[in-house]
Design brief:
288 residues, alpha/beta, Nitrilase/N-carbamoyl-D-aminoacid amidohydrolase, six-stranded mixed beta sheet, 5 helices, 15 strands
């Protein structure tokens, strides 16, 4: 197997209610990861603020920003200064009354490559995202960066194999899932370990089924009723864990040899053997 290694930076961070403080912390993490050799860096979901979706409050719409805009320009400057590809999840104001949970991708020369709008929007206790976010309408995308072809999906998207498959079919070598997920106080004791294992297992399945790398940076720390469980990880196309964070603020630079994709797909040709003629039922909500 040839060596075509990309160094991926994972930033697991806690977030405060102070936007400026979070931006400064993220900038420091990006600079530190770049000094450590990272070429592609991904931040957790909605890293600029507390996870505000725990309650319905119209005041939080003031946190939203236009894309492109000042916030993206600051990220472009960071990417260029550190010679890294950046992936960042932002609260996008598309128009008056229309908002999205959006990830931006910026190349290592500071060019804005585009954005992905979160497709699957949850509505669970303390995850009241349907109040804030319009479902994405840009489809599943792949961005050709200096170092790799990457796809971005966001948090709740990670439970849907269709999203990972369509992103892989567009040529993604690495799928990034910026995430904000954790335990509610009443759930951790009885279900905590099972919830975490299910969360990681489904994403490992996406890596194996599509023979791609999966990178999931989660936030960490207690905010309101949620204890964000951290556990950020990187897995390879064979499902092997290359990095696993704990439950504290943590960063890592992880080697991802993209040549493993070819090797894995030759041995396990799942994409070759797909029966695309038999999948029309997937377009139904439920086959009844």
């Amino acid at each position: 197997m040839t060596n075509n290694t990309v160094k991926v930076g994972v930033a697991q961070m806690s977030c405060s209610a102070d936007v400026k403080q979070n931006e400064q912390k993220a900038a420091q993490l990006i600079s530190g990861l770049a000094r450590g050799g990272a070429q592609i860096i991904c931040l957790p979901e909605l890293y600029k603020s507390h996870y505000f979706c725990q309650q319905e409050d119209h005041g939080y719409f003031d946190l939203a920003e236009t894309i492109p805009g000042k916030g993206v320009e600051e990220l472009q400057a960071l990417a260029k200064a550190n010679d890294v590809v950046l992936i960042a999840s932002l609260f996008e104001k598309r128009a008056t009354g229309v908002y999205h949970n959006t990830a931006v991708v910026i190349d290592a020369d500071g060019r804005f490559l585009g954005k992905y709008r979160k497709m699957h929007i949850p509505d669970d206790p303390c995850y009241l995202e349907k109040f804030y976010f319009t479902p994405g309408d840009l489809g599943y995308q792949v961005f050709e960066t200096r170092y790799a072809k990457l796809g971005v999906l966001i948090c709740w998207d990670q439970w849907y194999p269709e999203a990972a498959r369509l992103t892989a079919l567009k040529g993604a070598e690495i799928i990034f899932y910026p995430t904000a997920i954790g335990w509610l106080g009443e759930d951790k004791k009885d279900h905590g370990e099972r919830q975490f294992n299910a969360w990681k297992s489904v994403q490992v399945g996406h890596a194996v089924a599509n023979a791609v790398f999966v990178v999931t940076p989660n936030r960490v720390g207690t905010e309101g009723n949620i204890e964000f469980w951290g556990g950020s990880f990187v897995v390879d196309p064979f499902g092997a864990t290359l990095f696993q964070a704990g439950q504290k603020e943590e960063t890592a630079v992880v080697d991802c040899n993209l040549s493993l994709i070819e090797e894995t797909r030759r041995g396990w040709p799942f994409l070759r053997d797909r029966r695309v003629d038999s999948y029309e039922g997937i377009l139904k909500r439920y086959d009844d």
